[in-house]
Amino acid sequence: MDDIRSFCIIAHIDHGKSTLADRLIQHCGAVTDREFRDQILDSMDIERERGITIKSNTVTLEYTARDGRTYRLNLIDTPGHVDFSHEVRRSLMSCEGALLLVDAAQGVEAQTVANLYLALEYDLEMVPVINKIDLPAADVERVKEEIEEDLGLDADDAVLCSAKTGDGIEEVLEAIIQRLPPPAGDPEAPLQALIFDAQYDPYRGVVLLVRVMEGSLRRGQKILLMHTGKEYDVEEVGLLQLKRVKTDELAAGMVGYVIAGVKAVSEIAVGDTITDVEAPADAPLPGYKEAKSVVFSSIYPMSTEEYPELIKALEKLKLNDAALTYEKDSSAALGFGFRCGFLGLLHLEVVQERLRREYDLSLILSAPSVRYRITLTDGQELWVDNPSLYPDPGSIDGAEEPYIKASVMMPERYVGAVMELCRDRRGENTTFSYLAVGRVELTSEMPLAEVIFDFYDRLKSVTQGYGSFDYEMIDYRPTDLVKVDILVNAEVVDALSQLVHRDKARARALHYCERLADTIPRQQFKIAIQGAVGGDIIARKTINAYRKDVTAKCYGGDISRKRKLLEKQKKGKKRMKMVGAVEIPQSAFVAVLKTDRD
């Protein structure tokens, strides 16, 4: 076990985690130059295109150190975006140490600090690594100062490297060997293995990625999952070396995969503990937390015939994405669909994109919302994330919405613009702290509902890309909540209803009315598109009717002749409006929801 090192790479988004993982894999000779491609651990097209890591990935490397010994390195690459911090948490649970990566040009950012605290929670050994030293804008001395001031780590121990050019990779590997501890654990103790991830194989079923803490796992063993209480027979165990490599057993301290005939998506919980049926461990491994959904949206297929395919696609996606939750939902306008829970807006975008690409589905999403706590006059408490479940306003005693503590790091010159953005989003208790010369951290408490739309995009815009953002849930606070309904030709369109703060209701309703007026085709009669709170109309747009020129045959003469013809036409249009139904095209829903920028 002295020859094993288990570590992960943590950093803010876009600081070079995947590139560093690529260089470590190449340096250890785990892949030939012919087979190599950039971001080799990122298996999805969407990860490569956007340059982000969505799923944690693991690989076992063999490295011969300068002292002549060969070490086995278990590397886990983690996501950097705030939405996927649960993936980072599970990766940290299965490691003894972490490389904390900091960009030499951008310095310490919000997620760097958040991930450091996560790592300290699990008592991991940290090796600070300053990456991108080859950039013209690199300022290593300033970054070292930030590492000491913001993170409280010794900057003299920081390893300098450039993952792009390969400079300093040998020093990073030596630092892993010298400064990270080997795993503890007794191969003879009762089995305890952490499931930190799972992959779906169409031929073998669910492949569990595990870190063995105590005892050992071997083929033919009967195992028990401690949180779900289900039993399985182990069919195969092995190591992940970019491909699955079979071994006889996985002993304490090792990271590998287990195939145990798990077929159904719902049978496993990522973060669960595996133990032996005949000699079980006393308790599951501590630190397991379920990922909590904070953003909710309904997904409907464009065509009702695709509904069975959507069910299958969500079941398969749920396996690779433990944080996705869904339940059946229906809408009068859009038919049957699913109400889904997501970790944040990027998670929602990624799920939508994966459903479209991997399963060839055309989808419509309802406007994202958060979960509100509503107290009724009879003292009963309700949790509402779907506007269709909102109770009668007369029976509501009070409503509360989730608040977050937002942390924004930026250069000093953008303080005014970011403060204005936070104030616009109902931010309160805003405070500043100066981290280093010219860099400021702003913290503000604000409603999650104000952040889920386009806060991140706006922040990047007002700080010209230099601002970084992280948040944590804090509590629920009273709010003045109203339900905004959208009426088309006096009919409520349930799929477009939304729950918003009273101050934002008119702006949101007007935005929806304008979008619908642009996309609903004209009819033979006038169409009124209205936004309403209860019985009060707060916004309106009108689509004018097609109109035949009935006065074309009147050449001169008395005006009363023309007026008579126009009045006759007006009566016909009015009668038509009473019997005419407005078909809202699918493109109208897409236009409203895709461009939701208030």
What does this molecule look like?
It is elongated and about 110 Å long. It has five domains: 4-179, P-loop containing nucleotide triphosphate hydrolases (Rossmann fold, 3-Layer(aba) Sandwich), CATH 3.40.50; 192-276, Elongation Factor Tu (Ef-tu), domain 3; 295-365, 2-Layer Sandwich (Alpha-Beta Plaits), CATH 3.30.70.870; 392-479, Alpha-Beta Plaits (2-Layer Sandwich), CATH 3.30.70.240; 483-594, Elongation factor 4, C-terminal domain (Alpha-Beta Plaits, 2-Layer Sandwich), CATH 3.30.70.2570. It has an eight-stranded antiparallel β-sheet with strand order 11-10-16-7-8-15-12-13. It has 598 residues and is of the alpha+beta class. Strand 18 (325-331) and strand 19 form a beta hairpin. It is built from 14 helices and 31 strands.
Layout of strands and helices, then pairs:
Layout: E1 4-10, H1 17-27, H2 45-50, E2 57-64, E3 70-77, H3 85-93, E4 97-103, H4 110-121, E5 125-131, H5 140-151, E6 159-160, H6 169-179, E7 192-201, E8 205-214, E9 216-218, E10 222-225, E11 231-233, E12 236-241, E13 243-247, E14 249-251, E15 255-259, E16 273-276, E17 295-301, H7 307-320, E18 325-331, E19 335-342, H8 345-359, E20 363-365, E21 372-376, E22 381-384, E23 396-411, H9 415-424, E24 428-436, E25 439-447, H10 448-451, H11 455-462, E26 468-479, E27 481-488, E28 491-492, E29 498-501, H12 502-519, E30 527-533, E31 536-543, H13 559-579, H14 586-594
Parallel strand pairs: 1-3, 1-4, 4-5, 5-6
Antiparallel strand pairs: 2-3, 7-8, 7-16, 8-15, 9-14, 10-11, 10-16, 12-13, 12-15, 17-19, 17-20, 18-19, 21-22, 21-23, 23-25, 23-26, 24-25, 27-28, 27-29, 27-30, 30-31
Helix pairs in contact: 7-8, 12-14
